Amino acid sequence: MAQVSINSDYSEWASSTDAGERARLLQSPCVDMAPKSEGGASPGDPDRGTTSRLGAVFIVVNACLGAGLLNFPAAFSTAGGVAAGIALQMGMLVFIISGLVILAYCSQASNERTYQEVVWAVCGKLTGVLCEVAIAVYTFGTCITFLIIIGDQQDKIIAVMAKEPEGASGGPWYTDRKFTISLTAFLFILPLSIPREIGFQKYASFLSVVGTWYVTAIIIIKYIWPDKEMRPGDILTRPASWMAMFNAMPTICFGFQCHVSSVPVFSSMRQPEVKTWGGVVTAAMVIALAVYMGTGICGFLTFGAAVDPDVLRSYPSEDVAVAVARAFIILSVLTSYPILHFCGRAVVEGLWLRYKGMPVEEDVGRERRRRVLQTLAWFLLTLLLALFIPDIGKVISVIGGLAACFIFVFPGLCLIQAKLSEMEEVKPASWWALVSYGVLLVTLGAFIFGQTTANAIFVDLLA
User: Fold this and answer.
1) Of 211, 250, 270, which Cα lies nearest the Cα of 67?
2) Enclosing H/E stretch for 372
3) Cα dihedral sign for 345, 70, 333, 94?
4) CB–CB of 107/113 below 8 Å?
5) Of 246, 292, 342, 367, which one's alpha carbon is 20 to 30 angstroms from that of 228?
6) Where are the alpha helices (DSSP H) in 29-124?
7) What predicted TM-score, i.e. pTM, was given to this entire model?
8) What span, in angstroms and rounded, lies between the C-alpha atoms of 325 and 363?
9) Left, alpha or beta for 107 (phi > 0: left; psi -120 to 50: alpha)?
10) In this predicted model, what pLDDT tens digit does every residue of 65-106 receive, in sequence order?
11) Phi then psi dihedrals of residue 334, to 5 deg
12) What distance in Å separates the CA atoms of residue 246 and residue 163, rounded to the nearest whole number?
């Protein structure tokens, strides 16, 4: 899952007349980026980036890994077992890596340094606006997921502290899930979300990385040396149907979505070349694949079809090692929510300013009032939805469809548009192949998005 960090350097806004530039700048990961120049950077240009290949690999891995791995064991169950889950991930990984390479190619061709700017420059205004709206909705849904995860982990921790049987009803009011989520959100998340600048990105990234690797290690260890009281459910060996296998795609898309953060990382490299970038993202995706497969396979084989959408909920509450994992996840989510909210708020702000035709430089008091109102509305809506959505699987199934748009649809459209712009020039031999591949990416992304949207609407209505 993409953990987007914020570029909090506001000094570059002063010369901007584009009302949406603030929103686009805020989407950049916290990497050392030089100011954008009109031409490409030469080898001796002091404005070149400073990120090494190895540094870029770890930044992309950090952007990819996140709390979404909690749903991977359930995704293996949905896909129909280990073989189906591995085959699905390996097949999708080819398209995921190619999408990252396409974005780098279009970034280099358009001389733009963020995901939205690339889409705007290559595909035009309408697609650019749709991209920004998709980012806002995606970050909104991810914030809901974070709140649900907080509630999941707190339920287990409180069960041990209160010494009550799991799932017992009629406990004290202060142990109720709705109360604990609300209290945590108002005490910690809301105060961190209101400020205009966020300066703790590095701490959030560190907690996220440590928590992710620790959770994966615990799940693998618990599979190798299981507790006596843990009994797996049915271990599926084949998918019930092809459509059931495809239902695992949103989780995979949500987990591997780092494309929004990838363009600034590419631009920050010392040698921002497409060929070099291909090696970087391949290495990063292989590392992420190992983490997700380790979590998915071991978690699924430990609990079988009975695995919870949040795999940590399947373990006993009193397990100390798992309790530490829950604490890591809570700390990571508490700091990640404000960052994702900050990105979404920035996009909403940019769209609003562009719609109203208002400049970025305006009265500070009006900006502060609007920021507080936007934050309160965002916070209260995500909290309300999180209180009445039972598990993260339902939210991930929806925002995973949006993640498919960032992985497949927008890169595919960029590739098609970039190749169509060459029609008046001499066409290379691969022209039709690349255009066809772009169409394939768009079709695949549209299929995943349409399927998840239909499931979210019709399945819940029938239920």
Assistant:
1) 211
2) helix 364-388
3) negative
4) yes
5) 292
6) 53-64, 72-79, 82-110, 115-123
7) 0.82
8) 45
9) alpha
10) 887 899 999 999 989 889 999 999 999 999 999 999 999 999
11) -60, -35
12) 41
Please report, as a single letter, which amino acid is at residue 425.
E
269: helix, strand or coil:
strand
Here the tokens at position 96 are: 């995921």
The amino acid that residue 139 corresponds to is T
Whole-angstrom distance, CA of residue 262 vs CA of residue 151: 31
Question: Going along 334-387, which residue ranges are E strands?
Answer: none
Q: Are 87 and 256 in contact (CB under 8 A)?
A: no
Enumerate the β-bridge partners of residue 51. Answer: 269
Q: 56: which 2 tokens? A: 């870029």
Length of the chain in residues, anyone?
A: 463
Q: Is-contact 91 85, C-beta < 8 A?
A: no
**What are the angstrom distances between the C-alpha of 14 and each of 8, 11, 22, 114, 336?**
14, 6, 10, 19, 28
- Residue 8 banded pLDDT, cuts 50, 70, 90: very low
Q: Phi/psi of residue 282, each to 5°?
A: -65, -45
CA 345/CA 371 separation, integer angstroms: 8
Token pair in block for residue 295: 């979590």
Tokens of 81: 């077992």
- Per residue in 267-321, pLDDT (tens digit) is 889 888 999 999 999 999 999 999 999 999 999 999 998 899 999 999 988 888 9
In the numeric block, the tokens 């979300």 are attached to: 193
| Nearest-angstrom CA–CA distance, 162 and 134 | 42
